[in-house]
Amino acid sequence: MLRFLRSLLPSILAGALVGFVVLGIGGRVMMRIIAHWEGRVPVLTSGTVTVLLMGTIAGIAAGIVHGLLLRFITPALVRVAAFLVFCVLFTLYGVHDLLLRPKLLFIAIAVVYAILVEIVTKRTAQPATIV
Known about the structure:
The protein is mainly α and 131 residues long. It has helices at residues 2-37, 47-72, 76-94, 100-125. It has one domain. It starts with a helix and ends in a 6-residue tail after the last helix.
């Protein structure tokens, strides 16, 4: 069991780190852009910390899914496609009440997140080469 959990750890850590940066900070930036579009005055509140925290938590959850997919689905193309679909559907669930344009922005963030998690986990899984 410990070996199984340890195999998920790289994906969970990558998910959390990329989630904080892309989903947390990127999500907050998108919220600021949306506020400008709607003619509202964007302000920084304690809700900003909540957005950063929720981005990290969502990143951890997606990292767990990524680790499970990495462990059980061998063909890379199928695994990446499944992870992208999961991230987009997870995002759509969270933003289903928004208008189309903001919804598409958050979906774009989810796609960037999924791609970066793939890149980070692929780079950390490769053994270091000494030149």
